[in-house]
TrEMBL record:
Ranges in a coiled coil: none
Keyword terms, alphabetized: ATP-binding, Helicase, Hydrolase, Isomerase, Nucleotide-binding
Originating organism: Stratiformator vulcanicus
A biological process term (GO) from this entry: recombinational repair
Molecular function GO terms recorded: 3'-5' DNA helicase activity; ATP binding; ATP hydrolysis activity; DNA binding
Domain UvrD-like helicase C-terminal: residue ranges: 309-576
Broad class of enzyme this protein falls into: isomerase
Protein's name in the database: DNA 3'-5' helicase
Stored SUPFAM superfamilies: P-loop containing nucleoside triphosphate hydrolases
Pfam name, any one: UvrD-helicase
Domain UvrD-like helicase ATP-binding, chain residue ranges per copy: 13-308
Amino acid sequence: MTDGATTPPNLLSDLNEDQRIAVTHEGGPLLIVAGAGTGKTTTLTHRVAALIARGADPRRILLLTFTRRAAAEMLQRVEASLRKIDTPSGPSDPRMAARGVVGGTFHAVSARLLRQFGSGVGLPPDFTVVDRADAEDIVNAVRGELELPQKMPKFPKKATCTAVYSRIVNTGVGLTETLENDYPHLIDFSDGLRDLFRSYRERKRAEAVLDYDDLLLYWDQLLADERAGPMLRKQFDHVLVDEYQDTNPLQASILRQLRPDGDGLTVVGDDAQAIYGFRGATVRNILDFTDTFGDATIVPLELNYRSRQPILDLANDVIGGATERLEKNLRASRPDGPRPMLVRAQDEAEQASFIADEVLALTEQGFELRGQAVLFRSSYHSAPLEIELNRRGIPFHKYGGIKFIETAHVKDLVAFLRLAENPRDSLSARRVLTLLPGIGEKSAARLADRLREADHDFAAWDDFNPPAATKEFWPGFVKLLRQLLGADDAWMSVEEQVRAVRLFYDGLIEFVHDHAATRRKDLEQLEVLSARSSDRRSFLTEMTLDPPTSTRELASRPPEEDEDFLTLSTIHSAKGLEFDAVFVMNCYDGAIPSDMSLESDEKIDEERRLCYVALTRARTHLYCCHPLRQYTKRRGLSDAYGFTPLSRFLSGDVQSRFNERSAGGEPLPEKPLSTEPLANVRSAVDQRLDSMWD
């Protein structure tokens, strides 16, 4: 209990007034509207520390984040905050107190609960969790077995089918309505999708496999159960949620069931940074928080510790055009700085050249490359810039593409461990089998069926007569799987298991992938990471639910002193980051906002929020680049192009917040003449030609 206890003053000494109000709040539901750069993490971690200092049991505090790394960082900061408190008012062991807090992502916490209570709902203890890519592969297998592409020509591909399924589960909106609202071009396939989704569910159940959506669905359903629900609710007195604007309806339902009256519930978020609608997240959760919890307290955080005021003036104006939002106006704690720059380029090539020039100029002024970033709406937008940077020898790292765990070689290695953990997992069985020379998809499917018919005993493969190309590898393959299956009895650590798979796979990698040397280094780093896991099951769960995105994160290695590189990133991947200088590419209608998101006010508003996120990554220098020509076809001297309008989010009155300049020394291209004068010219040409025939 915390009622009546006071928060130690030295825990509040480095907070501003709004942060103090949020940290010391007691009782009912609390919404902290934390604008970009306003110390969201500081406020949330100090609130957790204050709860503990006022007597709350850390083991009864649930802290939900959207990445494992965010949860780990927050708990470290909770410990640091607790160390500020002089005993006896503070906990005797701040480290143990912070570690007592239950922290993690929605999916990770759900997986933990299902390991405890899963047997009650028919889940075996060895169930495995598959990531989005593996879920798509299962969908594809079922799609083929049902012969849907043959029965219904142009039936959607696996990624689209999986996206539809996930949206239905996370939003709670039925198939027909989801297709009408979000996938109208798929309405004719509704019967096939319905059959596919039912069979997909049955396949997962038969193989003891859960996808991301299942984790949330089971947690929500357990909370709704009249017997399990009260028991789960009693586990926690306080529930705190980071990035609340990124929650979907299913996650909001979980929170409502955890704290039905809102007592002890704290959510932190910024409606202006709600940019994940394509994943099923809805800004309505944060906008309607006070409707859901009528006695909620709202505390806005508006003092920005990141950006200079001219940048914030621009960002405030941009988000001010939103159809609906929670009122706040960011103000800077730092002195005034340079105004944002609107850079007009003739085309994407000149845009790339300008960015490279300016990056080098800023470097000469003392700004490291690692303090600069180039942001873009879609990953492919950076292609001309990447060519220019490579040409000039400017080092860069690109984010927002394929993630580490999604690379084929990492998925190959992990599939061996998944199959040993859950021999019912036919997807993993087929994956590892097709790595062997001479075994194709059909042979792998037959072997997977043989394993299933033998009650998942690897002895079923003993009498298999492998093709000539496979004979060299088959004995070692079966031996490895049996070794992994008996790893617990042999006291084989996770690191030893990963090493065993890596050494076997080393003989195959040249056959199945290019760039083998780079892939081998990745797998060596994966082996290092595995040493941190106490058992194979937790390692697999962590790798699936919150994997590292690169070998740098994999090794938890900060940039070395002499390692300097420019960051290239999609805007989505840059959320939560900040840089001294930011270049936003392609600030024209069709890119920002995307021409794929113009069909509704809701989607345009999300594109506006995405623009806001890009602008608020900058500390001091902000460049918004507008290439005036967009080439549609490249044909040498007769290149076809169109003229691009400045992004609607940056035009009009907002444009006055910029200084403007040309990217190059040449005059900018003039816009085309209006259609009326062109028609007159054509008419005059016709008259002249007609006169020639007389």
